């Protein structure tokens, strides 16, 4: 277990600057988004576990929760969707759809965060 904790921490450390400055999210949100690729509903479940509470409003602002929700919905499709895309449309299409949704999710999350921060 300690080995996986180190991997998760290293992953969070790599993406922390982006998560904090661009999306306005805590660093552990990056791990929650990755788990959301397995199943979409796992993103919020993982976020609650990593935050240490199911009352996410006590550890994150409303804006942070909104940005996380938007990013997780628009983020890379779940693994089963990617598998179906691969099987039905091929690897290229599956990768293009995944890249597009990743870009869309991060882009919209960034716009929402930057607009909210500049107007609040």
Overall pLDDT metric: 91
- Structural category is mainly alpha
Rg from alpha-carbon coordinates:
15 Å
Strand content: under 5%
Overall body shape: globular
How many individual domains? 1
The ordered string of helix (H) and strand (E) elements is HHHHHH
Low-confidence stretches: none
Separation of the first and last Cα atoms: 42 Å
Major sheet details: none
Put simply, the count of helices is 6
Number of strand elements: 0
Share in helix:
over 70%
Jot down its keywords.
120 residues, mainly alpha, 79% helix, globular
Give your account of this protein's structure:
With 120 residues, this protein is mostly helical. It has one domain (2-119). The chain is 79% helix and 0% strand. It has six helices and no strands. The chain has helices at 2-22, 28-38, 42-51, 62-74, 79-89, 91-119. α1 crosses α2, α2 packs antiparallel against α3 and α5 packs across α6 (91-119). The longest helix has 29 residues, at 91-119. It is globular. It starts with a helix and ends with a helix. The mean pLDDT is 91.
Could you give a short description of this structure?
It contains six helices and no strands.
């Amino acid at each position: 277990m300690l080995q996986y904790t180190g991997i998760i921490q290293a992953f969070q450390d790599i993406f922390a600057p982006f998560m904090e400055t661009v999306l306005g999210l805590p660093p552990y949100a990056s791990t929650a988004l990755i788990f959301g690729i397995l199943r979409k509903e796992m993103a919020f479940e993982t976020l609650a576990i990593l935050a240490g509470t199911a009352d996410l409003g006590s550890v994150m602002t409303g804006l942070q929760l909104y940005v996380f929700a938007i990013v997780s919905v628009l983020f890379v499709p779940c693994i089963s969707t990617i598998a179906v895309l691969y099987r039905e449309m091929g690897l290229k299409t599956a990768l293009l759809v995944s890249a597009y949704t990743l870009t869309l999710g991060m882009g919209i999350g960034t716009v929402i965060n930057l607009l909210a921060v500049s107007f609040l």
